[in-house]
Each structure stands twice: as structure tokens, then as C-alpha cells.
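Allow me, if you will, to draw on your knowledge of protein folds for a short while. The matter concerns a single protein, recorded as an amino acid sequence and a row of C-alpha cells. Could you please explain, in whatever detail you think fit, how the C-alpha cells follow from the sequence? I remain grateful for any guidance, and I place the record below:

…
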Amino acid sequence: MKTRKHLCWLLGVVLLFSLNGTGNAQARKGFEAASIRPEDPRGSSRPSSRVSPGRFEIVGASPGELIARAFGIEHPQRLVAPDWVRRERFAIRAVMPDGTTERDIPEMLKTLLEQRFSLKMHVEQRPFEVYELVALKSGPTFREVGGADDCANLVAARISMAEFSRMLRPSVDRPVVDKTGLSGLYELKTLLPPARVSAAAQALLGDRLDKTPSGISVSRALEELGLKLEPKNAPVDFIVIENIERPSTD
């Protein structure tokens, strides 16, 4: 009996160390090196960024814009922060670790903000005006796709409704929340006019955007897909800054 108890205790210790090791191995990604320099706040009101192999650069960005990019906050009112966080601007030039891609940049920006700006924050839900993306009673006009083999030549068209909702944001005046109840990946035949969609939508759906008539409205484009936007007041995530400091520059 004692032998069995000792064995169970030993296995528990091994499991604990194993879990700790796994947690460390999955620690948040960060840039290998990053240069931060202040910029003239009277410059361009929009930051410009560029990603090249092994490099990330963003110029003219306020700490608020960096936080928004890192945490996926589309609307500036959803960031509760000191005034200087929106006003002051910086240029950041960073080296990305081997094996990381553009998809890893938000996570690496979170690490940069914590390490160089001493960012401490929490997320809380507050009521906010949003649009809910819902399906018409007639149902969607697009089809669900399966695995990669089902859509081998249409990889750019494989999109979830949550991703599509985020892409609508530049074309409307409120955040869009997916309430379609559609949980798969879908092939969309039409989308919004090229001039009114985000760069992310342009990159994801490519020349499909060019096939949409330039005069079509957002509501008409969605109606063709069997979808619509309904204005609502709903709780959404706000980022509340507890602490943030101007970074040491180099």
C-alpha cells in the first residue's frame, strides 16, 4: 500500500513538472529586438506599417493604436487610457524570430507593450452600440465548405462568419458582432465594393472583390448573401489601462 502511495505521489510530481514545462514552452512570443523612437505628433494621422521577411516596422503609431492592433480593438472609444496614449507617436522597427509570420505580430506587440511601455490592463464589458450580423429568414445564399480538399482552388474564399464580421467594420459606423449562428467556413460569392473594404478583406478574397458592382450598398451586398445588420446595444469588451509609461527609446 505504501509503495502504491509513493508511486502515485511521484507520478503527481512528474505531471506537475511536465505541465510547468509545457507552460514555459508555450510562453508568449516576442520580437528578438525592437527599436522605439518618438515621432512628431503633427505628422500623418494614420500609422503606416510594413512586414518583410524577418522584419516588422510601424511608423507614426500612438501607443493606443499599438494596443488596438495587439488586442483587436476596432473602435477608439473602447480603449480607456490617458490622453497622451492617443496623442504621442512612435516609430518601431523590430526583428521577428525565425518561424514567426504576420499572424504572430499581435502577440509580439502585447509582449513589447508589457516590456517596453510597462502596460498593465484589464478587459471589462460595457454597453456599446453595435450591429449584429444575422441571417435572413430565407437563409444564406452561400455554401459551407469542408476541409482543404473541398476548397483546394478557393482557399481565399474559406472564411468564418466571425472573420467576415470583422471585415465589415471599415464599411460601417459600429462594430459588427456575429449572430448568424453559422459556425463553419463558407465560400462567399459576393462582397462589398472594393473601395469600402479593409486591406485584410482585399488580401483574403482577392479578385472576387473586383466582381462586385462599385455602386452597391453594404445592406444590398449583405442581402445578396442572405444576411443583414441589425442595430443593437450590447455588452462589448473594453480595454481599461491600469498602467502605461513612455518607453525608453533608442
Notes: Confidence is low (pLDDT under 50) at residues 1-25, 148-156, 192-197, 205-215. The longest strand covers residues 227-243. Residues 2-25 form the longest helix (24 residues). The chain has seven helices and eleven strands.
